[in-house]
Each structure stands twice: as structure tokens, then as C-alpha cells.
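Example 3.2
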Amino acid sequence: QLESGTQKAGADGLKPKEQLEAIGQEVNRLLGHAQQCLKDDLTPALREAGIKILQHEDLTEEQKADVEQIFLHKIHPVLTPMAFDPGHPFPHISNLSLNLAVLIRKASGEARFARVKIPDTLPQLIPVTRPAGKSIGSGHSEDNTFIWLDDLVTAHLDTLFPGMTILEAHPFHVTRDAEVEIQEWEAGDLLETTEEGIRQRRFGDVVRLQVDRAMPAHVLDILMTNLQIQSHDVYLVEGHIPLTSLKHIASLDMPELKFPHLFPVVPNILNPDAQDDDEFTAIGRRDILLHHPYDSFQPVVNLINKAATDPSVLAIKMTLYRVGKNSPVVEALLRAMENGKQVAVVVELKARFDEESNIEWARALENEGVHVVYGLIGLKIHSKVLMIVRRVGDSIKRFVHLGTGNYNPVTAHLYTDLGLLTCDDSIGADTTDLFNYLTGYSAKTDYAKLMVAPINLRRKMEGLIEREIAHRKEGKPSHIIFKMNSLVDDKIIRLLYEASKAGVKIDLIVRGICCLRPGIKDVSENIRVVSILGRFLEHSRVYYFSNGGNEEIYVGSADLMPRNLDRRVEVVFPVEDPGLSNYIKDHLLEIYLNDNVRARVMDADGNFTRLPVSEGQEPLDCQRHFLETDAASWADR
């Protein structure tokens, strides 16, 4: 908008330039808060645990000699100093790279600028060895004392510029616009067009420059001029750059400082070691709900593996959004193709930052003869759907998995998600129609049970809220509980305000962006908004309506945002089994709403406050509760 010269103010009354400046101010505030937390809280705690990160100047002479040998033999050969003068153009600064801006003085007295990139292919934490007999204390070994790689390189810049005087050196970190520009309507081949977009990503505009607060103005000016950025793109950092480098500390082998190991439950009903029946028989008996990461994702992988070799399986159809590397799901699909099954896979090439991985899987599947569809022009396929068509006796049955999360065993350990396994005939028919829409041509405008964006999801979701308003006006029970990642859609928010004004009680569990404001007199007094942040990323989407006493619960892949409702293919499905719906209402939603450890409550100004634990009140951490009780909950599921 800024580049196009747009001056139109948004809903907040700010023009594009003013919005960017406001964002910059808030990000700077948050960065300062994070750096202060690192300095005052985390660093002392790490030291107490025996982990020290020293500055080169703080090392003993023996330690300096040790790390110098590491530098000369393992680091120096990898470094490439890049000069900047009339004969050397300003070097390309790659996205998310850490660099040193170096000022040197030649023997002639002339000052020059150079860039040294800190290689991301090398360990960023260099272990500092200690003289024999000396340890860090507390029983920890010397291996837990480190120096940052960029600090070590800075201390030895003279080896990169022999005969020169090093005047100063300052770290900086660049973030480029990662948006992949794809002209879908003009693309002859969507896969090739996406590949070209990925190649161009490395040249995206610089949107953030993080620099050491001590960087002088004349050095910063060189960077700003050559990176073509404005002052609002610059973020001054006091401390190590970038904060994401702390992940290298988290990867240290010190299990005593980490969360206890997660042991997901494999429910007996889907456990081949505990049941004589196979997965298809179990699903045919009743619907099954999985709650990840507390329930293992392995039963879903097992189901696809079983389908790949089961002679009664005729076809497998599936959507793939983010599957990750070394995917057992894709390997099972390839085996199914080898075994003569009809396999159709919709691979979304435009999944942000997973484009390259998805392109590789799409090609691997195509090379084995799998029917691969790249998506729909103008829409991103975000739904999580698996359908297995199987011969059962003289009939054909469809076994369906619908979920809120990706078919990715890695993220299934990190995200909270829900998945439904069912062979309900209506859902099976709807899923067949959905895949026909994704792989062929369809003008279908409704589904029996599924809510599908952009076809009927918005219309039905708005209708369900309006129905709750009508129930309230008729004196019937009315209550709305939504759990999602983001609430942004203007029409939905206005409807929720109308419901609140009508007296409908509304509880919203929103992990991320929430544009609704609760607690405003005569507008949203009946709305409560909480956000849950914890060990696992809250990713499931649940929509509960009391419906005058005939409760309805829907689960799916969609948040309430314009992009999800109008510009993506999303699937939201009903949970109709009484035991499963009671589990979601009483075991999940009620626990989330009563959390007093992880929960933050939003006020009318959009600020979040942690709930204090009242005197005599037991602390309730929802994620810890699920870890401790999810296995037992299978008695109710």
C-alpha cells in the first residue's frame, strides 16, 4: 500500500505509513522487553544451571588460545570477507542472515567498509574448554561454557584483513519479505510458477534491519542506503542478535532443564497390540476422536499404512498442506500406489515456507503415477481431509479422517489438534463431493453435514450465531464457545456483538490475533476472551452452540478470518457422537475456560492480563491437566 501511494486510512484511522510506524514502535517495545527478560531472568537462571555464554574479552588467556585454534582450523576457511568500494558492489545480504559490518583502515589511511557473513552452516555456540582441573561448578562439565560464533569471528577479524587496521565491527541481521508472488491466473504451470516465486524470494525487499545499539550513525547509514530502507525498518537491539539464536541453547543435551518427555497415548481401540479388530473395524463400530499431542498421531499413520496394503481398499484420497520432511504419510501413499490402489492427492504448493518441501513431495508422488492436484486457482487448500474407500462385504464404505492439524507427525507432538475418524455415510458422501470439487469441476453450493469454505462455511457460521440470538430472545438456553487461532472477520465480530447485546453468553478462546473487544458497555458486556499460551501451541478450532439445549459442536481447520472464510478451502465438521461432544464440552472447553495458570484475559482495550490464583483456589494448568488425564478420558470416548 505504501509503495503504491495509497493514503486511505484503515479501520483504526491510520494511514499505511502511520500503521508501519506504529507497528515498529510496538515491535521495538516488545524486543526491549524480551532483551530485558534475557538479561535479568534467563541469563542468571542459565548460569545457575551451569550454562555460561562468555564474551571473548572475558576469557582467560588459556581459553583464548583454545578458541583461537578452533577459529583457525574450523571457522576461518569458511569465512568470505566482502569489500565495498567502486570495484566491489555492495554484497547481497541474504534473508535471516547474521553479518558483521566492519570498518577497516588501509595502510594509506583510507577507511573502507566490508561485510563478513556469519555462516549458518557452523555451530553458533562454540564450546570454551578450561584448563585441566578447573570446572564451572555445580557438578556441570566445562562443555556448558560457550562463546557466540560471531563474537569469536569479531575477535579474529585481523586474520581476514591482514595488513589492515580494524576500526570497528558491529553485528546486523536482515529480514526480507518472504511473500511469494504467484500470478496464478496467468500461470501455465502452477508448480513451475511457484518454483520461480521461491527463487525470487531471496531477493525480497528488506523489511527489518536489526543492529547493535552501539552501531554508529555513519555505519548504519551505509546499511540503510544500500539496503534501501527507512528509519522505521531499523530495530536497535541491546544484546545478542538475533533472539532466535537462543534456540541453540535449547538444543543442549540437558534434559533436566526441559519439559518431561511426552508419551502420547495410543488408545486401545486403535492399538493393534491391544485389540483383535483392525482399524477399519474399530472405526466402523463408532466415531473416534483423537486429541493431539496427548493422543498419539501414530494411529492416523497406521491407518494409511493399513490402507496401502489392505486388498479390500480401492482408493485413497487426501489433502496435504504441511507434511514436513521424511514423511511416513507420503511413503504410505507411494506404497498404496505400488499395490494398485487408486491414489489422489491434493498438494497445496502455496503453504508458506513449505513450498519447496511440498514441491518435492508432489514430484515424488507424480513420478509414481499418483494423481496429484496442486490446488485451485485463487484459493489455498488448507483443509485436512483423508478418505479411504474400502469394500466391506457386498458394499462400499468410506472411512474418513477430518482434522484441525496437518498430516505431520513432528508438529503433532508440538501443536494441540483434534482429529475425527468416522465412516458416517453423510460425511463420506460430502467428502466425496469435496474431492470432486478439488480435483475436477463442481458448482455445488451446499453439503449435507460439512461446512466448506468458500462455499457454505461463512453462510452457515453466521446462521448458527443468528440462531443463538433467536434462542435467547425466545427465552431458550443460549451460549457460544469458540476456540481458534485468530478472530479477525468483521462480519462475524459484528454478529457476536449483536449476540452479546441480545444477552447471549459468549466465551472466546483465541490464541493469537483477536480484533473483537470484550467488556464494552452496551456492546460486548457478555463476551469474555482468553488466550492460552503454554508448552504446546494451541491450534485446534472448536465451535460450540448451546442451540436452545440441543447442543451442537463443530471442529475444523478454519479460523474466523476473511482469508479462511473466503479465500481458502476449509472444512468444519460436526461432532455428533454424544460421548465425543460431551468430551469436547466438559473435558476440553470447560478446562480451557477455567485455566488460571496459562490463561490471559483480554480487557476492553485489547490488553491481556494473567489471572491470579485466588486464595484457596487450586492452580489449573489446562495443558498439564490434559497430559495427566487424557489417557483416563478414553473411558468416556
